[in-house]
Amino acid sequence: MKTAIIGASGFVGRHLLRKHRSRHPDCIGTCFRHQGDNLTVFDLREPDIRPLRLVETGHEAVVISAGETNIASCEHDLNAARINVHGTLELIDQLGRQGLHVVFLSTDNVFDGKLGGYSDDSPPDPPMAYGRHKWEIEREIGNLAERHTVVRLSKTFGLEKGDGTLLDEMASTLAAGQSIRAADDLVFSPTWVEDVVEAIVAIPDRDLRGIINVSSPEAWSRYDLGVALADVLGADPDLVQRVSFSELQLSPDRPLNTSLTCDRLRTELEMTFRPVQDCVEQVARNWKDRS
After folding, report:
1. Model pLDDT, residue 33
2. Which spans in the chain are helix H?
3. Dihedral angle computed from the Cα positions of residues 269, 270, 274 and 277, in that order, rounded to the nearest 10 degrees
4. What's the distance, Cα to Cα, between the start and end of the chain in Å?
5. How far, in Å, CA of 194 to CA of 216, rounded?
6. Which stretches of the chain drop beneath a pLDDT of 50?
């Protein structure tokens, strides 16, 4: 299905656009500021989809991957709510009026993080502004767009050396002989970005609607990931310092265990995910080879 990507300069959005353009080279990808890569500038603070000419150019679906993701900005900057809530709802309303299938990328941070293992229909209770922004969209999207899907993501990473994502960042530090402080109580469902892309591409094609969790079925802590990387790298395991999240003195309201279960994904898409250990080994190999 020909799909536009709102927020195609971000990590997930960039991978989505590449996948969609392999099928439809002229599908639209947007960014906030001009960045090349044949992207269209689009301001989510004051969205206007008319210049995009989505229906006229044969687009049937739109993925909303844009927004303010900096947790501190979401807590303290009113402009973040203008982007994440008010602008996004206005955009969804415009897309819904054109009959397009709206796929909104949400987050595991809509949950309180007290239990983990949250399912597609677990009740959200977000403790942070970022999660509350996403939850507000989840509540309202059905009133604005008949064809809609909310995709909840966990921590997404790549496998390229130097991409700066979760595993690469940790591996590069350990390979340099530097220590990392890794919380053993911060638990999530780390997922390879290409698996995420495959799922998101399939959702409008299968006309799946409502809320669907998209993540690996595995739950890992940051500490466990660090230990696994150190083992494959042959690094000193003492470089991975076990701490609690509270010791890092970051956001005190951060939900700790946001691991997901993905019943709809398993039954309706029959997806399998690359094992996290395989991903750990791939990233470690990137940094073991220092050539």
Report:
1. 75
2. 11-23, 71-76, 78-81, 88-97, 129-144, 166-175, 193-205, 222-233, 263-264, 276-288
3. 120
4. 41
5. 11
6. 291
Q: What is the CATH number of domain 3-156+190-214?
A: 3.40.50.720
For the chain, state the CA radius of gyration: 19
User: Do residues 241 and 179 make contact, with C-beta atoms less than 8 angstroms apart?
Assistant: yes
291 residue type, one letter: S
**DSSP labels, 169-200:** HHHHHHHTT--EEEESS-EE--EEHHHHHHHH
Q: Does domain 159-188+219-258+275-288 have CATH number 3.30.559.10?
A: no
pTM to 2 decimal places: 0.95
Element spanning 214, H or E: strand 210-214
Domains 3-156+190-214 and 159-188+219-258+275-288 share a fold: no
Residue with tokens 């310092």: 241
Q: Cβ(69)–Cβ(79) under 8 Å?
A: no
Please state the domain extents for the chain. Answer: 3-156+190-214, 159-188+219-258+275-288
**pLDDT at residue 291, rounded to an integer:** 45
CB within 8 A of 77, min separation 6: which ones?
Answer: 68
Residue 74 has a pLDDT of: 87
- What 8-state DSSP symbol labels residue 83? I
Q: What is the pLDDT of residue 268?
A: 93
